[in-house]
Fold:
Amino acid sequence: MGVMVPFNPVEPFLRSERMPHIWCSGCGIGTTVNCFARALAESKLPLDKVAIVSGIGCTGRVAGYLNLDSFHTTHGRAIPFATGLKLANPELTVVVYSGDGDLIAIGGNHFIHAARRNVDIKVICINNFIYGMTGGQVAPTTPVGATATTAPYGCFERPFNLPYLAESSGAVYVARWTAYHVRYIAHSMADALRKKGFSFIEILAPCPTLYQRRNKLGDGLETMRYYKQHSVIRHGANTRDVNLHFQGEITLGKFVDIERPTLQQTMEQRFRQVLRDRYAG
Amino acid sequence: MPAATTGVKARKFRGEVLITEDRCKECGFCIEFCPPKVLEFSKEFNRHGYHPPILVNEAGCTGCDLCGLYCPDFAIYGIRVPVESPAATASAAGVSPLGNDTSGVESVRQGGGI
Amino acid sequence: MSPPRPSAVLSGAHFMDGNHAACEGAIAAGANFAAGYPITPSTEIVERFAARAPLVGATFLQMEDELASSIAILGAAWGGAKAFTVTSGPGFSLMMEHIGFAAMTETPSVFVNVQRGGPSTGLPTLPAQADMMQARWGSHGDYEIIALCPNSPQECFNLMIDAFNFSEQYRNPVLLMMDESVGHMTEKVVIPPADQINIFPRRHTSKAPSEYLPFKPASDDVPEMARVGEGYRFHVTGLTHDEHGYPSMEWQTQQALVGRLVGKIRAHADDLTRTEEKQLEDAEIVLVAYGISSRVALWALQEAREEGLRVGLLRPIVVWPFPEKRIRELAQRVNAFVVVELNYGQMVREVERAAAGRARTILVPHAGGAVHPPESIVKVLREVGSWA
Ligand SMILES: Cc1ncc(C[n+]2csc(CCOP(=O)(O)OP(=O)(O)O)c2C)c(N)n1
Ligand code: SF4
Ligand code: SF4
Ligand code: SF4
Ligand SMILES: [Mg+2]
Structure:
């Protein structure tokens, strides 16, 4: 007891001087960041060449806590920022880490277009079914029946099924996990880091302060237990069938893992084919 | 679980768990999801008024680092230490692929051989 | 990304319109990334860039909207590119948040607005100059902007290069505020040899990562930039941030940061000011006009001079920061300023403010959709002349 020891192995991946972070007790975002640090280690990527881009939200704060070149952009626009960054500097591995509201509500248009173009970025979406940062408003992921401050009588809009949205928009890698499935998350993130093209990982995570409390679902730990008990892993499941329902069964797994030329590749191929040696790429 | 605590067979590694108490926000993830259930909340408070975990069964820790993976606050992690070098915290750093900065850690709870 | 090779610069004399000239100006300035979303009357700029980009080692991406294009260029800029976007009317409104983000994060970037009639969809194919205050104040919060107003295709080329240079020098978004008439006007444009074009290089730091603070001003209140991917591990945020680039929600940090952001431009207002002046020596009435209106005003000036009125012309080329010192000087000795602009009164407010009651300020307004009939300006000049 009390022996000086090596610092936590995730430390080199963190801006330790910025700890403690702003996330609430039992918030799942930190757990996923922990997994991400391990995925970075597993991927063996040179960290100087990994850049992280976030939008705005509780999850949007991830960029600021990681010891990488990091960009905390505007609400919803992490993906187009990342697109410019990646195209200007193709040797970077560019990761977008943001919330469900950020990526899918205000940023939804960018999400589908980046997937369509197959921009070589990895998009990690922390889905807590709610707008955390602004105090618990309804999101395009909020399940029907769940309440939020702006859906006080329960959400009556059909939410997006994110893996289906990602796949049908053109993503080459699509997976869903919960914050309980830490080893799966870490491996999936490492997979995505290695993969070329638009990769998407949805991670369900507790927001005990807002979503769980407002819906009387207990605290973070209670939610993690729920994830443990009510998740089934079905790799390769048809993404049409992986809808989420309020406190329903959760289908997890790696749903999509295909090859398709990236935006950069199709661009270069086209110019080379048409312009031949006039192409200055 | 009992297997981990009662195992007496010679193993190459034993588990060690390392806790930065003042980072803990008492979410309980590490305690709940530790496979051999060797952690509990401490009676003591940390700087922010939370009860950090303590290792209650030193022999039981396998060093699996699930606590480390779960902790949203980067406050705890487990490592495996070769049994040949008992107090070898330095060589523990070698076990981790993730670096060995020695600044800032407050305490170690060592588990026994399994 | 490397700067375009000299062969990218189309040196020589050309007959081209303002939009194409602006595109060539960007290429000559070393722009190697553009993102845009089509909108009249600016589209020709990105159409030309789309055709030219693969030939000169640049990248063009047509994004899904102006929010995307206005931040894709900022991502590209942090990736090492010299980047710009182009828009008009409604698209300019959509870009406002990212002009503020560029100002806050000190991202070198160029935004082109080929102004058309508004509000809303307004007059897509016809000129106006009604976004001048939006250019200055359109994004929320306190910040300073640099904006340039060309009045010919040649100047579209020249000022595009200046816009890039200012954006690098001050690490600030720079706006090229064209108008439909200048954008679609075809004239002779002379593009100089590449080696005669002055390029302000990016202010990259030479400090080691351990000694480098990303938002600590080096000189002129402007911090040096780190190259991404080189181990600096820097953080960029639109939140109020300290010299490390880390968020800090203290009023002291806000004061230091916003004070510096505003100060770095204000302190150099004199260096930035650029005007064209005609017949001011003996002028009693000063026409103030920019962009296409300055050319119409010149007609009116000549006609008024023939009638014996002592009229001069002041044309702000850099409109923001506004050349208020020059207006103040002139206000001491002239009777009146007559401001000609395609709006119901925008830059005239600046003229009036700077004149501070020492000379009268009169607006010749126009709703846009056409340029002023020169006669309407002469009429005002005659009337103002009769007051003296
Ligand atoms: C343009 C704009 N609109 C609204 C906001 C306010 N805002 C900040 S974060 C946020 C929602 C965040 O929700 P989500 O992306 O799900 O992130 P979480 O906090 O849940 O992690 C909103 C609406 C903003 N910052 N910018
Ligand atoms: S409000 Fe919710 S999402 Fe935000 S930090 Fe707290 S628990 Fe996490
Ligand atoms: S390393 Fe952590 S999770 Fe694993 S056995 Fe030890 S205390 Fe439990
Ligand atoms: S997981 Fe971390 S924060 Fe939660 S109780 Fe354990 S040490 Fe504390
Ligand atoms: Mg959310």
